[in-house]
Amino acid sequence: MTYPLSYMNDPWFSLLQSRTEGQARTQVARQLGISPATLSQVLNGSGLYGEGKASTSRVADKVTHTFGRYVCPHLTEEAGGEPHEVTADQCRAYAHRAAPATPRDMKHWQACRQCPHKAASAPPVPRAIQPRNKVIPIQPIQPIQTEAL
Fold this sequence. Notes:
The chain is mainly alpha-helical. The chain contains eight helices and two strands. It has helices at residues 11-20, 25-32, 36-44, 47-51, 57-67, 73-78, 88-95, 103-113, and strands spanning 69-71, 85-87. Strands 1-2 form a two-stranded antiparallel sheet.
């Protein structure tokens, strides 16, 4: 393993490191929809990620789409072409909400329906719990027999 690994110089990795500082890695992993073990291996450059046998592209996409920033096409157009960045959370809040009541918000919401960032900013879909194939039988506990004195 050559340290640092090539992916550790990418912008998404710096963003991931900044998000894990002062916050439990378990929480960050939950926000990203990955296991804490995967997060730890990516951050430490260990396991299959450290050996270069596993791709970090899925983790990189999740980091970018969860914690990153987007140039909003609608707000950029409203600002006369001046790029307007929003956080992934702001993008998600606009694009995936119910239809608003005001005309200005409705115009923004309709633009979000056709935005290229809409799919990337979608809230994570909870995965169904998969039952294990093997059932471990539970043996009843036998009471301990003690001899009378």
